[in-house]
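Dear support,

Our group has been running a series of protein-ligand predictions, and this particular one with pyridoxal-5'-phosphate is the one our PI (initials K.S.) wants archived with full inputs and outputs. We had some confusion internally about which version of the output was final, so please treat the block below as the authoritative record. The input we submitted was:
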Amino acid sequence: MLDLLEREVTEDTHWTERFSQRAQGMHSSIIRDLLKVTEKPEIISFAGGLPAPDLFPREEIREAAFRVIDQHADVALQYGPTEGYRPFRELLVRHMARYGIQARPENVLVTAGSQSGLDLIGKLFLNPGDHVAVESPTYMGALQAFRAYQPKFLSVPIDADGLRIDRLEEVLRRGPKFLYVLPNFQNPTGATLALERRRRVVEMASDRGVPIVEDDPYGQLRYNGAHLPPLLQLDAERHYGGGVIYLGSLSKVLAPGLRLGFVVAPEPVIEKLVQFKQGADLQTASFNQMLAYEVARGGFLDGHVRRLRRAYGERRNAMLAALERHFPKALRWTRPDGGLFLWVTLPEGQDASLLLEQALREKVAFIPGGPFHADGTGANTLRLNFSFCAPDRIEEGVRRLGKLLCRAPLA
Ligand SMILES: Cc1ncc(COP(=O)(O)O)c(C=O)c1O
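Confirmed final output from the archive:
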């Protein structure tokens, strides 16, 4: 037995000591690990950022898949251009124009989800030791993507109106390679960057010559209030453009399993991203791009987004009402205008991962907030997703969490 163990350890180091330096700083994302647990149907999961499966447009996708194979199999099953299927890029340009994204197809690179866009951006811009400015908290998948390129993170705190302008200047002064921002219904907090702050962020970043990476998978999923202009648009109005790289995704408005996202950037940036993408995966799946194009080309997405807004708006309301009913009054939580998440802050000194241990025993899951902070803070915070569960499950899950929270301090 001992012999066997020793052999396993030796075999382990046989591989690990050959891994690159960049591999040493990498670890599995807590979200991916948790999702393995929460896939079990008996768990009420507020953990992932999963769209509701009952809202996937199955029939439209099924019909489009038949059309693609019947009419375009030679192209759909073949290698295609790295930039993406041209009609699909043109469609993305038309669709995103409604939201203020002004671009030409030459400015668009189709990626395997926006996650892959984040990785390509890290690869293009970051040398080991470079600074990247991020919101605190921010999307943990972006931290994971950038970490592979060994940067140092500079955290800018956010509040209910997004990035805190009074803390931005000191970070920009340190010359980060770029500023990574989620202006709409931010993952994880649900916060939206207020209009006046958007203008200031664009102005300040541009004055310091710091590019902005604007990550916006949720912008179309607004449940109240008016759409706000993206940073890309504000930058274009002020400086004729060039300072913002925009990332979009079809994951939350169509289906994440298709793995379709896109980067909008000035042509020299796209050209270079294309070279890296060639090395990474040659191209995004032709079939999936043509499928999405077939589904969306008659204007389907606009109606579908309206349906999603109604359904997710109801789920957000259900979660907010359940929190009022079941959570201790001393806790604070956000009231997002859109997106898929809200954010709970426990009293200082409490630990959300202890709550998670207890919650999993009660068959409820969520994500503790710590890993969303590049600076190691946030142990007393947690993220709740409200898109995946139906309203009655939301009520029951929040009730169980509330009971735990009323019981004992989590320190
Ligand atoms: C802020 C943000 N960016 C990017 C992604 C990656 O999305 P995808 O790769 O599915 O487009 C997510 C997924 O949840 C996200 O929340």
